[in-house]
Amino acid sequence: MTGVLVIEDDDRIRLALLLALEDEGYTVRGAATAEEGLRMQRRDPADNVLVDLMLPGLDGFECIRQLRRDDDVPIVVVSARDDTHDIVAALEAGADDYVVKPVAVKELSARLRALRRRTRGAAPPVPVFTCGELEISPDAGEVRRAGRTVPVTRTEFRLLCELAEHAGRVLSRQQLLQRVWGYDTGDERLVDVHVGRLRQKIEDDPGNPRHLVTLRGLGYKLHR
């Protein structure tokens, strides 16, 4: 049975999440502070962690950073803060997804299942993709640009592999949500944020990209 750790300081919300996720078939534990949650995860790791951002003591961003330093557990932010800057900061700290309160538990449960499938994943394809000066090696889990290694997160790497596998073709945001995140529906800002972060790493001029381009109203394309 899949275990979920909920780190949420609001007693009412934490209890509601615990009960609702138990009804969905999860084994659930709760923590009211980041410090407590970190101790629980280090002592008895859960399969997924939900983190609120506005926590007493260590805030959610630092909690995510420390969780990510310890292991590769899927982390979902559950927060009332829906500003794009908060989403970017949480993803950069190491979160895998971001859900805005109030939470639809069925949707949250589906996202947790998708994250677990994505984390376990099937073996990546063998070919090395070459797009101009970019070289993406799925087997090695590496991205190189002009011969130099580009550090990318797990999700950025999966997104880049998906675009590289379909280089020269436009993929919509919804297609990318389905193929990279495993979501039938979701917040398209997840795609936009990750594309923006990739551009910072693979483009000479992220504001005028040559490799990873936007087709307005259609989606994104990686040039061959």
UniProtKB/TrEMBL annotation:
<dbReference type="GO" id="GO:0032993">
    <property type="term" value="C:protein-DNA complex"/>
</dbReference>
<dbReference type="InterPro" id="IPR039420">
    <property type="entry name" value="WalR-like"/>
</dbReference>
<feature type="domain" description="Response regulatory">
    <location>
        <begin position="3"/>
        <end position="116"/>
    </location>
</feature>
<feature type="modified residue" description="4-aspartylphosphate">
    <location>
        <position position="52"/>
    </location>
</feature>
<dbReference type="InterPro" id="IPR001789">
    <property type="entry name" value="Sig_transdc_resp-reg_receiver"/>
</dbReference>
<dbReference type="Pfam" id="PF00072">
    <property type="entry name" value="Response_reg"/>
</dbReference>
<keyword id="KW-0804">Transcription</keyword>
<dbReference type="GO" id="GO:0000156">
    <property type="term" value="F:phosphorelay response regulator activity"/>
</dbReference>
<feature type="domain" description="OmpR/PhoB-type">
    <location>
        <begin position="126"/>
        <end position="224"/>
    </location>
</feature>
<keyword id="KW-0902">Two-component regulatory system</keyword>
<dbReference type="InterPro" id="IPR016032">
    <property type="entry name" value="Sig_transdc_resp-reg_C-effctor"/>
</dbReference>
<dbReference type="InterPro" id="IPR011006">
    <property type="entry name" value="CheY-like_superfamily"/>
</dbReference>
<keyword id="KW-0238">DNA-binding</keyword>
<dbReference type="GO" id="GO:0005829">
    <property type="term" value="C:cytosol"/>
</dbReference>
<dbReference type="InterPro" id="IPR036388">
    <property type="entry name" value="WH-like_DNA-bd_sf"/>
</dbReference>
<dbReference type="GO" id="GO:0006355">
    <property type="term" value="P:regulation of DNA-templated transcription"/>
</dbReference>
<keyword id="KW-0805">Transcription regulation</keyword>
<dbReference type="GO" id="GO:0000976">
    <property type="term" value="F:transcription cis-regulatory region binding"/>
</dbReference>
<protein>
    <submittedName>
        <fullName>DNA-binding response regulator</fullName>
    </submittedName>
</protein>
<dbReference type="Pfam" id="PF00486">
    <property type="entry name" value="Trans_reg_C"/>
</dbReference>
<feature type="DNA-binding region" description="OmpR/PhoB-type">
    <location>
        <begin position="126"/>
        <end position="224"/>
    </location>
</feature>
<dbReference type="InterPro" id="IPR001867">
    <property type="entry name" value="OmpR/PhoB-type_DNA-bd"/>
</dbReference>
<keyword id="KW-0597">Phosphoprotein</keyword>
